[in-house]
Amino acid sequence: MRSDFETIPEKLEKHFRLNNKVLIFPQQDKTHTVEVYEDISPETINKGIRTIGKIGKGIKEVFTKK
To answer: What is the pLDDT of residues 6-61, one digit of tens each?
Structure first.
């Protein structure tokens, strides 16, 4: 059985055939478990989320017509 990630390109092509697409997938590393990250504080996670938001806005600016 194929994972949800593997079927995303086909679904996008089916519904958005006339649009250009860029897919960015997270790295899949199944060797790490939650126990490895027990020492990460909520503030660290929030900082990461804010950083990802800034990156997303930067990518949006690249692809937004002016």
So the answer is: 888 898 899 998 988 887 877 766 666 666 666 777 888 889 899 999 999 988 88
Q: Is 4 helix (H, G, I), strand (E, B) or coil?
A: helix
Write down the residue that tokens 């938001």 correspond to: 53
Q: Which domain holds residue 28?
A: 4-63
What's the distance, Cα to Cα, between the start and end of the chain in Å?
43
Q: What is the pTM of this model?
A: 0.40
Give how many domains the chain has, as a whole number: 1
DSSP string, 7-66: HHHHHHHHH-TTS-----PPP--TT--GGGGTT--HHHHHHHHHHHHHHHHHHHHHHS--
